[in-house]
Specification:
single chain, mainly alpha, 5 helices
Length: about 150
Amino acid sequence: MERQMNKRLEFGLVIAAILVVVAIFAAFWALVLRQHQISGFGQIRGPPPRAIPGDFEYFYVVNTIISTINIALLVILAVIYVNIYIKTHSPFTIGLIIFALVFLVQNVTSSPFITAPFGYRAYGLGPFAFLPGMFEFVALTILLYLSIKY
């Protein structure tokens, strides 16, 4: 029993380390891209012609970091669910795999790393730029905890 707890703790620490590395990479890359114009596939659409009160660029940097962490969490969850399916062949696990993959596609296609090269930028959202991603991060973290625990 204690061996299984140690294995779960090690697995949790590995996942935490992966998420820290992903967050650092996303923060670095987002800050680099924020300082340089990105040559994209289409015409770069700039910010609105007037300043929007309460809108800070750092909200979008935080959104980029959270989005990238969510992508990493979804990849980890999908791998865990595939491993569970290999062991159990449960139809419910197929649903979890589909759930993780659909959310993964949604997060990848809405990631600022994907939308920015095509010339699309978010602006005028203020803190609402990253709040949905933050709530998703909390939900994915709970799913990951429950998936590791059982």
